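Pinned message: reference record for ATP-binding cassette domain-containing protein
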Amino acid sequence: MEEYVIEAQNLSKNYNGFKAVDGLNLKIKKGEVFGFLGPNGAGKTTSISMMVGLLQPSQGKVLINGVNVEKVDKIVIGICPQELVLWENLTCMESLKLMGDMYEVPGDVLKKRAEKLLQDLFLMDKADTIASKLSGGMKRRLNLALALIHAPNIVVLDEPSEGLDPQSRRVLWNFIKSLRDNEGKTVILTTHLMDEADRLSDRIAIMDHGKLLLLDTPANLKKQIGEGDVVEMKLNDPEKNKEIIEYLENMHLIESAHVIDNHINIRALNAVALLPQIMRYMEDNKISVADLSIRQNTLEDVFIELTGTGLRE
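Predicted structure (tokens):
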């Protein structure tokens, strides 16, 4: 039987008539990385804030291990916000010890835990460096260490890769996986990066305009819009996009076609076989192609299929 750590029941949040979250229902399993994927303003952060007791819902309730979130000892939750929350004039080690003291972590345990976090997040050589002197990526990793110093069972990461270089992002991703695989923690992740959601999440909730659109494993989400390929085509004359879309739709051989960022996004089961026919039509009508690529379905394609718009629009 599945063990659920968090259960959101009909959660809604209104701000002066604006519905930031609209009737959210979901369950998060113990020991999984659960991703919230959606564009900025989709309601991801608001949803999580209600689920961990930081924000009062306008409607609905949240259970953590079967207990109403209002009655849960918040020490079981660690939150790493998108905005950096650091003591600029304290060193990394001093920061961790101060946060640990606030949570009343015993001194001997605190020292070992702080050293391990610094080691795991590649900050040990910066243990005695004050936070203001750290690089942006190091500050973000220290921010995460501070959220974990009291050893919470539930870890909330709000856009953890925001502003990180590729190398720092890899360090962070490997660390997030280790929280689940080696320590059995439940990790809740908000992101607008498809690659991040796809690589890290056991299950993903896709949100937009405050609503839950789909919830499943990354593999199943990509299967939901069909197997096959996606052709991305950019025309030299974008004004011809509509004409090509109409032609493609009349062929009855494609699954869907959308214009995203001036690219025509074509999804079909046998896209490669269809290309010669499409190119002949374009040649006959003197429509030239600036760029053409073929790839497999991604989570962004799932989002486009659901909403008709790109994830970052």
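Pinned by admin. Summary line: The radius of gyration is 23 Å.
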